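Example 9 (inverse folding). The structure is encoded as follows.
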């Protein structure tokens, strides 16, 4: 949150104040099993819905930016969001779970308006909602999405003599060209002790939530202890 812009000598001094912003949420969900003769078990249709109020989102005013009013050029403003997930779960070959999801974040207070026009060049100066995840100078203070869409595919299968181990893989696509894939293995050492191995791979456009981490792909090793 930019609070002041002080000028000392020839260099501007920006003063930032960190504050805690409370977000209010209300949500619901459903699931419904329907026997469609697809796979080895009924198809489960799922939905999750979330309404959020008082979410702080960056708003860029290029008219204010054109004459150096930095406190008005980049502000955080409260708005409402509606987020939802629609999915379906299938079972194939007895124990292979396949799950697909459609995910969308809707900015109910999205801003996209013209604030002024340069009389010499006829260039329009707009005021718009910025991209929360990737806003920076290198991408020209990127405009955000009114409707941000994701899609995912999840695969899960147990293995071993008693089906005591499990391998999972989820792939998520993000509108704008970002990708994330996570492959993980759970290996049962004892009833209460699991060994885990996971590989996270990010790629795609650097101006997306996932693509900006393309140099941060990782391998994780862990131990889980299950308490009774």
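The amino acid assigned to each position is listed next.
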């Amino acid at each position: 949150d930019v609070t002041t812009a002080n000028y000392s000598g020839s260099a501007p001094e920006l003063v930032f104040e960190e504050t805690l912003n409370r977000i209010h949420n209300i949500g619901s969900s459903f699931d419904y099993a329907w026997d469609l003769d697809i796979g080895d078990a009924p198809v489960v249709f799922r939905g999750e819905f979330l309404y959020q109020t008082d979410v702080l989102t960056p708003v860029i005013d290029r008219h204010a930016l054109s004459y150096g009013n930095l406190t008005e050029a980049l502000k955080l403003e409260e708005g409402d969001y509606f987020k939802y997930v629609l999915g379906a779960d299938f079972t194939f070959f007895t124990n292979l779970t396949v799950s697909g999801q459609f995910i969308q974040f809707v900015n109910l207070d999205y801003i996209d308006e013209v604030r002024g026009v340069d009389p010499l060049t006829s260039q329009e100066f707009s005021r718009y909602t910025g991209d929360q995840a990737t806003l920076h100078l290198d991408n020209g203070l990127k405009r955000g999405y009114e409707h941000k869409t994701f899609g995912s595919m999840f695969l899960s299968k147990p293995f071993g003599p008693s089906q005591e181990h499990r391998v999972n893989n989820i792939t998520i696509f993000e509108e704008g060209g970002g990708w994330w894939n996570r492959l993980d293995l759970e290996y049962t050492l004892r009833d209460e002790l699991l060994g885990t191995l996971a590989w996270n791979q990010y790629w795609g456009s650097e101006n997306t939530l996932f693509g900006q981490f393309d140099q941060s792909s990782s391998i994780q090793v862990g131990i889980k202890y299950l308490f009774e």
